[in-house]
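re: ur question from the group chat, yeah i did fold both. here u go
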Amino acid sequence: MTPARTIKYAWISSVLLIILLLVFVSSCTLVRPPAKPANIAVVLGAGASRGFAHIGVLKVLEANRVPVHIIVGTSAGSFVGSLYAYGLSAFEIQKLALTLEKGDIVDLMFPDNGFIGGEKLEEFINKTVNNTPIEQFRTPFYAVATNIQTGQEAVFLKGNAGNAVRASCSIPGVFRPVKIADSMYVDGGTVSPVAVDTAKRYGADIVIAVDISADRNTKQPEGTIDTILQAVNIMHAELSIKQLSRADVIIRPKVGYVGASDFDKRHEAILEGEKAATEAMPEIQKIIENLRLEGRLN
């Protein structure tokens, strides 16, 4: 074989090798595994009557078609969150809230480890969700309470919805503790007022946290229950700081002027929730857009 022909064959072999390498590389890119779908959680915090603000937040998220895959609620957040996770729209919950009377959910009693029994609250939730157990809700729901015997966070993710919400809302000194199985439970805000870590533990990739305890009330409390609730709210604000640092978006409705037991300002609280959520929407939409670009969200 002449030197010229040898060079020609070497050149052809090199070209073929390059083509084969390009085919191999392109085939590798074609079998790249699909991106893991992202789960967005909304975490609704504790705050007694200020919890009406959660409804306004949900209205804005719903109006902007923000996908919600997980709902976590503590205390008042569990009350609103359970209804939304069951399948009621934010507007349906608002209509329900604006016609709600204290007597519908509050059963006052002679103080015996609490001023409020909690049975009416449990009955109201179960009636509203048609006695549907938590695990059959439209959206996965987690109600956060506190085991008063161990001091540990307790998360209810199945079973009696009313019972779980009642446990989550049982503020020490105001509600009688709830006995479930062999344990006693009180308000989840005692250990986890805005349960960001719970949401992440149960599969959330993105957490939108709603904090209704940060805006302080400067009014003097009236009566024993108001004093307890205001003291509890101060505790909630301090306890929330650490977990909120791990949230992706924090929504803080300005509800400091709403008394902890003030039903009369529920409409104002809802509006404050709407305002705060609207302010946060550009940040939320940017996260959603990035997830869609990554192929992690439809």
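okk and heres the other one u asked abt
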Amino acid sequence: MLKRFSFLLLVMMMALNAVAQTITVGGTQRSYLAYVPQNLGAHRPLLISCHGMNQDANYQKGMLEIESVADTAKFVTVFPEGIGKSWDISGNRDINFILALIDEMVDKYDIDPGRVYLSGFSMGGMFTYHAMNRIADRIAAFAPISGYTMGGVTAKPSVRPIPIIHTHGTTDDVVSFDNVQSNLNVWIQHNGCPSTAQVTYNYRGTPHITRHVWGPGNDGVEVVLMEMADKGHWISNDWGVKTGDEIWKFCSRYSIDVNNLPSKPVMQIDQRYAGMDGMAGKQFAIVNESEAKAFFGAGEQNLGYDDYTTAFDDGNTGYMFKLEKSTVAGKYLLRLMTPDGAEYNIWGKPGYLNSQPVSGWCSFILGLTKGNGEDIENGAVWDIQYVDGKGYTLRNVATGLYLHDASPAKFDTPAYFSFCTLKVATGITETTTDIHSDGNTYDLMGRRVNDNYKGIVIQNGKKYIRK
């Protein structure tokens, strides 16, 4: 009886350590499960583990079996919950969630921000690859399991060399093992790793595990493949070798400096266009100022609609548009432009803002009518009207209804948007009103200046451009 009570007490203590919590990100309440060992200590690491599609945080926790490893090594494990049990693997919605989680864990548990690691299973593994190009400055090492970017992995030239450990079963019938190597090769080359791996068969005495190591590469990073023979689409934990333990042993070797991260430029509205006159040939962002959100191309063909920081990110397909005349008199196409100012194309065809039928499975795409993701006639054609004092309305010619967000044009009443140019927020106020010196006006060298001084001045703690 005493043994049974002790066992139940242990289970209860472990359950208490796995705490379900919520955090609000971009106006949406997000959920996560956190496993925090007792007597954690100060400035400890964090492992974030993302579930597969149609799974959840609790299921991922059960598959990974990380508790004993975390208890011994003293690190926190967080299992985030995806919206609709899936992950955004093309845009920044869930990237922002992960960044918010890191900040939350740093505040709550004194996590070392330079020792944060990201892993995920299946679609969570796809998201892990997606994050490599987005937040390698915040994640010290990456550990995808049974997942990779289905459209082909890319490595942005600006991304630092990153350590990767990828675990995959050879008989996976959901995400094929056959394509693992081609995806890893992209990062092996990017990291400057040797093209030939060091191979260990019967790894740690396990007949089904072959461990491939490419490295060291630049900055001492390695790319590792844990090849699980005859294993399917699940996390392998047998023969005394646990995937979570292997991930921890690999990732814990790496840390990054997050104290001197360069600040990202903040985009804000510059010039607003009033009316259609003079818009020909201009590039402009489409924003809803009342919601502080903007449209952008998310991934290869999807439309995103999110806060300015997310929308105006050069990692997106683009966020500027231009008008083109359509075959319908007085109506327009909205052509997406790439971050470098070129015209965006999908599969070699022009990319336009394009509304699917309200009943269609695809909520909204960027593409031609009658193209891939087939649309209805004139689905990419818009009746654009300017209402003085409110902004532009976008009414789709095909549906006869209005655009509000990244869903189809399906609303009876209009939403109002600004067509505008953007500028980088510098913290400096540009003004044509003279800023008179009052004895406390200084230049950037800290010297007092008089009314004749032109340029950037500091007065009462604020910066101005005196013209």
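fwiw on the second one: The CA atoms of residues 298 and 346 lie 12 Å apart. The chain has eight helices and 29 strands. idk if thats what u expected
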